[in-house]
Amino acid sequence: MKSFLRGVLLALVVVASIVAWAALPWPVLLALAVLFLLWMQLTRAGRQAGSATSVGVSTLPQRIGSSSVVVVGIAGVVAVLVSLLAMGVGYSEALSNSGSTDTAIVLRGGSASEVSSVLEHDAVLAIAEAPGIARDKAGKPIASPELVVAANLPLRDGSGDEGSVQLRGVGDQAWAVRPEVKIIAGRTFKPGLRELVAGKGAQRQFAGLAPGSQIKLGSQLWTVTGIFASGNATDSELWSDADVVASAYRRGSSRTSVFARLTGANAFDGFKAALKGDPRLQVDVQTTLDYFSKQSEQTSQAIRIIGIVVGVIMAIGAVFGALNTMFAAVAGRAREIATLRAIGFRGTPVVVAVMLETMLLALLGGVLGGLLAWLAFNGFAASTLAAGTTAQMSFQLHVTPALLWTGLKWALAIGFIGGLFPAVRAARLPVTTALRES
């Protein structure tokens, strides 16, 4: 019964420690680490733990094979976890960077995204004249009525398969609404002609998008006149004149959205109130920052869940690897541990020594895994379906310091679980039995 209660208590300690480790912010964890170092320096038990740890660490080169199992296993967990989470961060940043607080998007009321929205011509004209919209030097509202459709193009990977790309018909103020969009090769399209410009992300993903080439969209040929870059999700699109796109896809004078540059971020509330108060309009109004952030939430969350599930599965394997390694290490050092106990070392310093040795290996594995993820995947180009559409969106994986810290926390958590049980066994090892068996 006593053994059972000890086991339950140990399990509760593990669960409580992991929950606290995951929930506490880094300043609190740093303060706890400082307190632990002070304990090791100022108390007899702490100094004994330090001495026992130095002895154990000094023997690591003699156990390089078994120790590398822990390091490599944990490095694999961290590398995979950080890489998957970097995908979600990159996707979210690509969409979030597409918006700002001083630009607005207007959709038909109840529309979840542009592809499900339809704005009639009269509504488009009324929106463009709403108060709060900035105007150019000629006094013209900086508003771009836009039409989004999906088109198919052959992929650049040579497989012969086709992928879906988003073709956006824009108004003549689209460049003023999005000043971050710059032509980096060729020229922009001419209004009224079946010409288009391609984002650099779309050019990287689809074949035939070099300036001067012709591509077939539907049953019609279009000329690619240039390549643009924006540093956000727009890089995955094709742009052309809205009237030409509407004619080619038989959309009449309707548009899917209106993008507008406001006089400032503080003008949004007035702009929204004016549109909501117009009886001719049934529209939803959001800042582009809010719109694109919401568009990324579901996909980013799904990627994060997948990453955590995969990480947990791999972490279980790494924990068992650490358990086997440390149990073997404790068994091989039974006489050494028994000698320490015989000369006055209590159970706590022995537990701490074994735990610190395991955590050191886990730390090495976490650093190695984070480094591998950063070298292999930071800036790596990927693509997936854009939120709310069937078109593919290109983005880059982003291994952030926050993700590296998350990976390191996972590594140390694995080391804690993998070292705790062998450490407790070492502390409970009867001195006479250990000396006799060794």
Automatic annotation (TrEMBL):
Chain ranges passing through the membrane: 26-43, 64-91, 305-330, 350-377, 402-421
Nucleotide-binding is among the record's keywords: no
One protein family per Pfam: FtsX
Topology of the protein relative to the lipid bilayer: Multi-pass membrane protein
Major location (coarse): membrane
Keyword Transmembrane: yes
Keywords: Cell membrane, Membrane, Transmembrane, Transmembrane helix
Domain called ABC3 transporter permease C-terminal: residue spans: 308-430
Subcellular location per the Swiss-Prot or TrEMBL entry: Cell membrane
This protein's name: ABC transporter permease
Taxonomy of the source species: Bacteria, Pseudomonadati, Pseudomonadota, Gammaproteobacteria, Lysobacterales
